[in-house]
Amino acid sequence: MSKKSFPTMVNSNLEFDLPRAARNKAASFKRDVYPTLLDFGLLDDEHVQKYLNCGTMKEIYEDALKENRRSITLLEQKALVEAAKDEKQREDVWKFLRDSKSPVKSPKEDGFIFAPLPFSDYNNNGVITKSLSVKDLDILVDEQFLKDLCVIKPSDEQKELWDMLEDFCENFNKKNFHKKYHIGNLFIGDGNGIRPNVYGVLYKYQWMHPKR
């Protein structure tokens, strides 16, 4: 446990990146996912909150099968109608559900790969999702929650090191050594650690060497 006051430091990259990513995820969801939820009869606060935590469109499709089977049936019927058309005129009925790497077109076929939901591949997706809440279909971002996460938490070892450095600096300054000696010249470091630099302490003597 540190006896000294450790400075509060913030991860600058995360402080900028997390709120921006959270806002972008919210905007992407409303733009890209809400139309599908509306078509499937799943556009309400509870469902949106659930899907913010999901990785792909699979969960939305499966909920539509259970809660609004007719919306899926209509798409299946539309797919049959489109299949009868000339290939150049066919509408890709399942495109909005399908990942570009999917080897098959329909979710009823084996090997179908569902499209990812917005920001599901973002490294800190789990973090930004915890900051999102849904009210009246508006996705709100708790930016204070994200700011708090950006505060760096030093380890016990780092706190112990800080105490040692604080003690050294306090004594160094108390004796006014900072007015006579350049701190950068007082230590030598190598693979075995650090040690005092005699040349930095005896800096007034231009020519010297260890006694033989």
List keywords for this structure.
212 residues; mainly alpha; two-stranded antiparallel sheet; 8 helices; 46% helix
- Measured between the Cα atoms of the first and last residue, the distance is 46 Å
How many extended strands?
Answer: 4
**Number of continuous helical runs:** 8
Q: What is the percent of helical residues?
A: 40-55%
Element-by-element helix/strand order: HHHHHEEHHEEH
- Low-confidence segments, given as residue ranges, are none
Q: What is the strand and helix layout of this fold?
A:
Elements (H helix, E strand, L loop, with lengths): L11 H28 L5 H8 L5 H10 L1 H15 L41 H6 L1 E4 L2 E4 L1 H7 L6 H19 L12 E4 L2 E4 L1 H4 L11
Antiparallel strand pairs: 1-2, 3-4
Helix pairs in contact: 1-6, 3-4
Compact overview of the structure:
The protein has 212 residues and is mainly alpha-helical.
Describe this structure in words.
The structure is a single chain. The radius of gyration is 31 Å and the shape is elongated. The protein has two domains: 12-149, no CATH class; 156-201, no CATH class. The protein has helices at 12-39, 45-52, 58-67, 69-83, 125-130, 143-149, 156-174, 198-201; strands at residues 132-135, 138-141, 187-190, 193-196. It starts with 11 loop residues before the first helix and ends in an 11-residue tail after the last helix. By secondary structure, it is mainly alpha-helical. A hairpin with a 2-residue loop joins strand 3 and strand 4.
